[in-house]
Amino acid sequence: MDRWEPFGLEGTDRETKGFFFGTITALAALIVVGLLYPSLLETTLNTAFDWVLFNFGWWFMLLGAVLVVFTFFMAFSRYGRIRIGGEDVEPEFDTFSWIAMVFTVGFGSSIIVWGVGEPISIVTEPPPSSPVPGASIESLALAFMFLHESFPGMAMWYLPFAIGFGLMAYTDGDDYRISSIMSVLLDRERYGWLFWLVDLAALIAIVGGLATTLGFTAQQLATILSDVFGAETNLITYGLFALIGLVFLADVWLGLHAGIRNAARFTFVLMLLTSGLLLVLGPTLFILNLTLDATGIWLNNLPRLALYTAPTEGAQWPQSWTSFWWAWWAAWGLFVGSFVARVSKGRTIRETFLALVAAPTLLTWMQHGIIGGWVLAPEYIGPVSEAFVEEDIPAAVATAITLTPFGNLLGVMIVLIMAGYVLTTLDSAVYMLSAITLGEEDPNARNRAWWGALLTVLGIMTLNLPAFSAMEAFSPVMALPFTLFFVVLIYTSYVTARRHYREEYREPGERPFLAISRPSKDDEEGG
């Protein structure tokens, strides 16, 4: 038997083995430090987090605004007709499965964790000066939640990467790696070392983004099990993660269609049912009124909220929120964007915009309106805020559950949703980590199983960190270097899309749209 076969690396070159073992080594080192020296890891991460947001918070905001413009341009210009994978490719998944996978992978458990955590945090620690004078702090808090996890956050980081990766890895048939996005600018043969470094850094950044989400979920599950159901020992939480890991490994062997698709469908349906139940059990009238009021503030002041930096206030409030969100989206976007490109083969850029921006914006608006109205209602906000101040966001979520009628039922459903998000996220993450490592569209199950086992251990490790806030640091620190990659992505995606449009759709005599290079002789003759 080939000695590389247990790792799923048989027949691969040294470069591929380097991707795998280099990233695995970095991940294993992080796990060891987190288990043996959790306080040291927390201090290091929080220091790096503060430095990144203090010095580069403005950059995340500015780049995010540019990416929104780019996204709309690509979706609604003539390039929106381009089909990912080529004109002859048919979609692999029905519309419901497609949207369910895109939605559950793109958000994880952040809808629950931050759906409670951000509005309560903003009410407890409001901005130094209100960007919308006259707005109530409750409505402003929910408006910021809409901004960060509905729109424009939805259009900034996932879709640009999905478009670029889809065009170059599928439509263009380039190498199935993150670095393929640079092929328009650089020759892979000449600058192979740079392509290798980009791919290795991308894998580590993806793991960093995963660590953030797994950390939030792990600590939230532990708190719900303890505060709502009285399971005081971490052994029960470890056992739950072990069970999730076993189900996840079974999913790995089932693959993309039978495993990831079905996990996403289950989680998506359960999430809709839980939202409906919460609307009925919670303060229904207050939820509806606050959602409408916050929606008006959000939509009427969208540019102001998105670019709010409070430069004269001497504080870092906007950077700690908006810049943090954009950094998290950026780190998470490498994985989500590549996965969305994979499941969107056969769909046009415009259709992908609808599945990744329009539909999730509506869904997250609805869910955050319900969750935000639930915890900000007069009978809930006092105890929930107290739990947040005395402990942290996980305690605030658990307190809100215990205050709600049929709280145990609601708690069970939320635990199932979060477990479903973990399964879907891990499933799709290891699929893309393995695919990028091997440079193959459909990676083998053995290699995926290695990634899955290590990521499951990473999730358990986060339970050992002494502070929930340490999880926030992974994404900004990992994402900062890749913001330059997004700048390159804008250029290379446009150049590739323009070329495909000219080859597939351009009518005789039609000039290139916003051509950035001089037309050829054939162009001038209408060829």
UniProtKB/TrEMBL annotation:
UniProt keyword Transmembrane helix present: yes
Lineage: Archaea, Methanobacteriati, Methanobacteriota, Stenosarchaea group, Halobacteria
Annotated transmembrane regions: 18-37, 57-76, 96-117, 155-172, 193-216, 236-256, 268-292, 323-341, 353-377, 412-438, 450-471, 477-497
Cellular component aspect of the GO annotation: plasma membrane
The protein's name: BCCT family transporter
Species for this entry: Halalkalicoccus tibetensis
Keywords from the UniProt entry: Cell membrane, Membrane, Transmembrane, Transmembrane helix, Transport
Main location, first listed in the record: membrane
Membrane topology term: Multi-pass membrane protein
Compartments where found: Cell membrane
InterPro entries: BCCT_transptr
